[in-house]
Amino acid sequence: MSFSIGLIGCGFIAHKHLNTICNITNVDLTAVSDLQEERMDDIVTAYEEKALTTKAIKRYSNYLDLLRDPAVDIVVIAVISGLHAEIAKQALLHRKHIILEKPISLSLEDADAISRIALANNRKALVCHQLRYRPFISRLKELIDAGYFGMPYLGVASIRINRNKEYYQSANWRGSWSMDGGMLVNQGIHLIDLLIWLLGEPVSVYGEIANHAAGYKQTEDIAAGIVSFSNRAKGVIEANTVTKPKHIGYQLTIFAEKGTISIGGPELDEISRCYVENHREISEKLMETASQKDEHRRMYENFIESLTGGNNLLVTAEEGKKALEVICGLYQSHQQGKPVTFPLSSFSTTMMLD
Ligand SMILES: NC(=O)c1ccc[n+]([C@@H]2O[C@H](COP(=O)([O-])OP(=O)(O)OC[C@H]3O[C@@H](n4cnc5c(N)ncnc54)[C@H](O)[C@@H]3O)[C@@H](O)[C@H]2O)c1
Fold first, then answer.
1. pTM for this one?
2. What is the pLDDT of residues 286-297, one digit of tens each?
3. Distance 167 CA to ligand 1 centre (A)
4. Spatial separation of the C-alpha atoms in residues 171 and 160, rounded to whole Å
5. How distant is the alpha carbon of residue 253 from its chain centre?
């Protein structure tokens, strides 16, 4: 069975999707949509070159026209974050399956609505937390779930990167609460998703944030948080976009009863600790996977197989909401000056404008 893809948003991340679409079987690109004609041209040219095809790709400047196209089975949503929810809901209502870039949305209500509409229309919704599909991380998750690490005690997610004034001024949605969400929502969400996927169910969070560049952006550049989990594990989030002169990168460390794992670097592929008590062979095999970075292909394959009933989708809309909820909790905690407990009744990043 083959599926036709419509791509909405033809900017930076769209090219990553395009590469994957060209590299897997059973999918092809049928239509694209962007407000900028030249971006659609660039994507179509790149597709023709990579897929070695001269097939005509339809171009829609209004994404609703792409959603009305009966030839499109799957819609990839790679537009700016503040538009994710509206386009996702519309796509599902038009009975398309969706591959939705992170963050799922900028409000918890919208995340719930996406889940609800997907269910009501019997459509699949994948949220692009692609690091869950990276071989090292997915094997680590299997080992934790199988009990090799015993009780998880502490996880630390460090995001130490550089986003300068030029970055925020390169597009007017960047650094705005209503269209980007904060730095945790944009840059921090991948590691926060892994932290909670590996440690367990969050029950509360305390956090504080700061913005040292209010002259050209609204959102935070410093964030610190402590997450408590139902299994008594603790999570620490420390994130900044002011690292000089350039990125240190990312670091994820898990301290558990029977092992310690620490992986980091700009590409999250440098292991500084990989220890599983009494199972040297397991840690050695795990370390061998650290350089494998085919997560985007694995994510697409999981999605396509889920459409044909072959397996379960890993990052559904419900799963995609989890990291967003922890971040929203951290923001709300900053506003209230005290820990907040989950589930949150409601939150939108626009509430940070208050
Ligand atoms: N999964 C990841 O690792 C990852 C990495 C980078 C970006 N992203 C996410 O991808 C999204 C896009 O980021 P980007 O860096 O590609 O941004 P970008 O600004 O390069 O591209 C966004 C594109 O959306 C288009 N667009 C805006 N409004 C539109 C509309 N109404 N209809 C059609 N197109 C519209 C813009 O013209 C632009 O071409 C963001 O939500 C970001 O969080 C995810």
1. 0.97
2. 999 999 999 999
3. 14
4. 22
5. 19
